[in-house]
Structure formats: C-alpha cells, structure tokens
Amino acid sequence: MNIQRKYSLPNCTLLLEGLSDVTRAAQFQEMRPELSILVNAECYLSGYNQPLTGGREFFESLVRAVSGYAQEFLSSVPNPQAHNQESELVEFQKVDGNRHRLIIHSEGASEGFESHSNNSKRPPIEIDLNTVQLFDLVEAVDQFFADSQTLPELSLELQPVTRRYGGASPALIRQAVPAAVGVSTLAVAAIAFNLIPPPQIRPPQPKPDEQTSSTTKSITPPVSAAATPIVAVTPTPTPTANAKPAVKDLEALLNTVPEITDPSQLRALNRQVYNQVHPAWTNRSGLQQDLIYRLGVAADGAIVGYKAVNKEANLGVGQTPLPNLLYNPANRAPISNEPIAQFRVVFTTQGVLEVSPWRGYASTPEVVGAKITDSNIVKGLNQKLYSTVRQTWSGTPTFTRDLKYRVAVNKDGVIADYEPLNQVAFDYFRETPLPKMFNAIYGSNVAAPNDKEPLAHFQVIFKPSGKLEVTPWQGYQ
Description:
Blueprint: E1 2-9, E2 12-19, E3 37-45, E4 52-54, H1 56-75, E5 90-96, E6 99-104, E7 125-130, H2 131-146, H3 170-179, H4 183-192, E8 231-233, H5 250-256, H6 263-280, E9 291-298, E10 303-308, H7 311-315, H8 322-325, E11 340-347, E12 353-357, H9 375-392, E13 403-409, E14 415-420, H10 423-427, H11 434-442, E15 456-462, E16 468-472
Parallel strand pairs: 1-8
Antiparallel strand pairs: 1-2, 2-3, 3-4, 5-6, 6-7, 8-10, 9-10, 9-11, 11-12, 13-14, 13-15, 15-16
C-alpha cells in the first residue's frame, strides 16, 4: 500500500509518501497503517512554486538541520548540526535577524529554485526564508514527530546548550516561545536556554543488532507509477504532545465499521460531498486524464478518507482539493465506530465534477424528512412558489437545456431546500433565483436543508425559452 502523510502550516507543508512494512503490518489492521518505508519527501514553501524533493536521506538531513538551526536561532549559540555541509544534504545559514538561508546540496535538488554556485555538478539550492516561514517549517517537523505511525524509528536527539554560552535575554525568550508552540519546537527552545532537561520526544527502540543513533537509515525499494493508489491522511493541524491523528486508513476503516447503504441517506450525503468538493476545486485546467477516487464519508458529511482508483489519480492528487477537505479532529469528535458511506468522485478533464455512491443506489431514494401531504395545502404552496420564483427570475437565459431542481418549502411557502437534478442545473444555478432566495434565509448557498418541520416538495424547471414550470414532486427518476 502506497501511503501519503501531510503536515500543513500556512507557510509550509511536508508531504511524505511511502509504504508499510508487510512484516509489521498485521498488528495495524484496525488502525492507520504505519508508514515505515519512506519513498519520497516533498517540502512546499510559501512563495515558491516548486517543492523541495528527495528521499529518506534528504528528509532525515532536513529534520536534523531544521531542529539544530532552531536551537541555534533561539539561543544565539552556534550549533554545528545546522551547518554540517561535509556530511549533511541540508544546512542553514543566518542572513540577518529575519532571513534564514536554507541550502540543499544534492539529493534534494528541485527545479525552479535559484542556485548560487559555479559547481557544474548539481549545484546547491539556496532559499531565503523569513522567520515566520522558518517556524512554520519547524512546526511541520513537530507534526511529523507527533505522528507515531510515520517512520516510528526516526527520532530527534537534542542536546542542551550550556547556560554560560547562551546570549539570549528574557525578552528574546518572550518573543520566541509564542512562535515555537509545537512539540519539538518548545523542546528546542527550552534546551537552548537550559530551562529543562532534554526531553525524549520519541525514544528509539533499536533491535539488538542495530546501533542506537538519531536516525536509522532503511533501504528504499523502487516504486512504479502504477503502485497501489495512495490513501491520504491529515493529522490535526496543530497537535499537542498527546494529540494523535484520528483519521484511519480507508480500507481498514471500512473493514471495522458499518457501511451506510440506505439509498435516501446516500442521496443526502451525495449532495453534501458535492457541495464540499465543487467550490473547493478552483483550478480545473491541465488534467490529462480523469482522476477517480473512492471516498469514505461519515453520516454528518465529513470526508474521513480517500483512495485513488486509477494511476492518474494517484499522481494527480495535488491537483484536487481532497487533501484539504479531510475532516479536522480539532473541529469534530474523532471517528470511532461510526457508519461510513462510500462515494465515487471523478475530476474530469472537461472540468466537470461527478459524485455518485460507490455501489450505486440499491433502490430509488426518497427525500428524507417529514412531508406535507395534504393536497389542498400542496396546491396552494405550488402556486405561491411559482409566483415567488417567477417574480424574481429575470434576464435572458444563456443555457440551452432545461434546468431541473427539487425545491422544498415549509407551510408558509418559505424555501427550505433546493437540489439540482441534472448537470446543467449545477452549471447554471446562478442564473436562477434559488441560491439568492436560499442565501437570504440561511446565509449560505450550501447550508444544510431545513428538516426540522414538514416540507412540501416540488419539481421546478427553468426552460431556455424563459418558461417556468412548478409541479408537485413525484420522486427521483
């Protein structure tokens, strides 16, 4: 299984891709799979279009250099670990009080970055970071060390700086600590000023025949482009020392929780998934192939995991909003044994988003919630809805096919829900008054429908000729 882990801050994102060690995978069948073999590491920095990329050696060197330089910056005491260009791929140099130069010597080279060397043999990359970018990078490293299911044998060994060499004042401490709120960042700050003993962030557990060291190098097997599609997982954006990412591997999760199969509930969740993904997919150009994913969705619509279905989706996940849409445990209770629905999501080369239940509908879905069924009341509400929409629909239509919607109103004729029924209705919904009517009441075009009271449902058709049709709802076709 090819696994992806992402650690995100506003100015920096670390993206790790790798595999589970099959000899150790059996014990993790009911939890997030352990990423124990690192295949590729990418570091995205704000202001730069291209990521820094490399393998295991690059990532380990980056971790050591970031931690060493953070200690040096906070303590004003030189730390050789941050500048060891003889044996390290990554080093830091201080430019001034607010600029820090990140230098990558060879293995982590990436296109798109400036080089300041005359060495014709893979010159080093030099990137200047401001202090905010630096501490976001440090915090991303903190998130990695807080994740016990990613490279668990990789540990960070920090050594305290002797107090008599420190040149930091209490004012500097007050300035630095608010910027250094992560697990290892706070440890670095404390060690730099000799305030606490060096912590054991993640004690290494070497085998008897292994040497104890700050990092353990493993052989990275080759991975073809057609490897098993990735399962993306996003930890809590700002974890504490006790915080653990709550999102599980999609395959393992589906094997341990019930699956939502009720057609009516799937229909409602299908809308919620579309309403999350559609506005977030902002860049719809450049796809050479359709990207197809399998999504796991909780009963409240939270996207709890996804898996690429085709090779193109595995390679192009960065062109989709899915990594940013995974639920945040900080804003929602962790996923435990909740039922999960599965959906097929396709990002097409034409820029059209397609969302449908993974296994389809076992039967024709129905509208969820209590309904107004009295024929006289329904007839009156039908006429009221027609008059309201007719009065607010103006302008010359640009669409060439009927726009079909299901519209629900309460006993007073106030719109409570609306749902596009065909693709053209999705594409041209702004040419109808429905989103404005809905937004005026609920403050959002994609707010959850009002299901607290009985509703009357109607099919509303906007025709290219300008004609409007409103008829009682007969059910999904």
